[in-house]
Design a protein that fits this description.
Oligomer: single chain
CATH superfamily of the largest domain: Winged helix-like DNA-binding domain superfamily/Winged helix DNA-binding domain
Strand order of the largest sheet: 1-2
CATH architecture of the largest domain: Orthogonal Bundle
Structural class: mainly alpha
Number of helices: 5
Shape: elongated
Largest sheet: 2 strands, antiparallel
CATH topology of the largest domain: Arc Repressor Mutant, subunit A
Length: 128
Amino acid sequence: MLDLSADVCALTAEVERLRAENGKLRAALKAPPYNYPTLGLTTMEARCLVALHEFAPNIVSPTEMRDRLYGVGADIEATSKVIDVYLCRIRRKLTGVDITIHNARGQGWWIDETGRARLDDCTLAGEV
């Protein structure tokens, strides 16, 4: 009986640890990974920009962008227009920062190395 009680205590402690870790992971998923205070990006816009930043200078496909925004397996037809709207808003907000989001119709979006370097510089300087 003593061993069972110790096992229950150990499992209870592990459950509490996992719940705390789960809470941290959920908070990290909700928050934009970079701080873009002067741009006023929404969480979803920030996720789009982060995907472009991480993939630069390569193309981020519509499927990859959808997975970054909504999780693996989301309905691409329902979200492709929404992604276009996010990118349009981001482009508008990036006009003063000299970063261009390029589009390859049907293939996806990208920022070039210059844009990536500029985004790195701006992020570190607090401009973006």
